[in-house]
Amino acid sequence: MQTGVSYFSARTLRHVRKDLRDIADHGCTYVVHCYTETDLAYYSETMRDVADATREAGLEVWFDPWGVAGIFSGETLTRFPLDHPETWQVLSDGRRIGAACPNHPDTRKFLREWIDACAAAGGEVLFWDEPHFYAALLRRDFSGAWACRCVVCLSLFHHRNRYPMPAEFTPEVRAFRESSLTELLTDLCRHGHEKGMRNALCLLPTDLTSHGFPQPEERLCRALEKRGVQAESAAIEAMMHVGVGDFGEAAAIPDLDMFGCDPYWYIFGTDAEKFTRVYGEEAKAAAEKHGCGLQLWLQAFSVPQGREDELRIGVRVAEELGATHLAAWSFEATASMSQIRCARPEVVWSILGEEFRRLQDTS
Q1: What's the CATH number where 33 sits?
Q2: Phi, psi (degrees; rounded to nearest 5) at 127
Q3: CA distances from 183 to 86, 186, 196, 231, 249 (A)
Q4: pLDDT tens digits, residue range 278-298?
Q5: How many independent structural domains does the chain possess?
Q6: Which of 37, 88, 200, 224 could form an S-S bond across to 258 if both were Cys, CB 3.0 to 4.6 Å?
Q7: Domain boundaries, position 206
Q8: What is the pLDDT of residues 217-236, one digit of tens each?
Q9: Would you call 205 helix, strand, or coil by DSSP?
Q10: DSSP class per residue in 173-235
Q11: What is the pTM of this model?
């Protein structure tokens, strides 16, 4: 099993090299470097130096479009929509949101340019991190509005379904959103392969209640009640739906090399063993069917004090499922990011080191 960690802590090479030594000492074999829009604009040469230093440390170089265009994961900001307002997503209530629409041709052109920059920097794997349309809950938006109803999406939906896109979050709207993301990824993965890099895709767990985890939806309903909001079931589904729920469809992307998910039981408020196993097994079935490696992620942020040892459960389940890749978000248990750092980051980072070194010793 290959073991890795995400990294966005520094761009000064002497600090990066020190951190890379620490990462290697913790049993990692690869680093998922967050290649942000700031890096793209101001640090492209530096990122090539970072990639070289990573290989010198004996680690494989992965690049993550963290926050890029407002489509991929990201506790970081995007500039592209500011420069290209024509690409903005439009919500079902008519509001325009400063995140680029995955269907807009200019967005896709920009993302291919990001791939070109990764290839120039010496990237080996492109890590497609939690692709999604506007995620309302991540912005504390409880309106039930969803994206996207821009002119491009309206036209595409009408062309495919032969009727106008409804204003409600219907099964057809959900299917359109998911197919839009898989079509975008199909284009990007093909371009990545053409540039000599492999592709890994990670999906955030969705459809939680149908998988046996009603707790997040129940918490959302209670939060809405406190705000005096009477939300219909379609609005609840719109708020809960993030990314692509059809793992089989996503893993079928032709140029995909690794497929997986990040069953972060801490933030979803669920059981570590059950949550990792349910979504891990679904990801495994999809990956095996389509000949992909299986990657699972461990949550090394916002870990409460006294629950750090639960990470060992996630590692054990990944082992039992035969994951080819395991990774943790992020370096030093996200100690540098005050909003989501672990209660005791040094404890989390130590446990990850123990487990990752054990995995390498037994491989």
Answers
A1: 3.20.20.80
A2: -105, 105
A3: 20, 5, 20, 31, 10
A4: 999 999 999 999 999 999 999
A5: 1
A6: 200
A7: 2-73+109-134+183-362
A8: 999 999 998 888 878 888 99
A9: coil
A10: HHHHHHHHHHHHHHHHHHHHHHTT-EEEEEE----TGGGT--HHHHHHHHHHHHTT----HHH
A11: 0.97
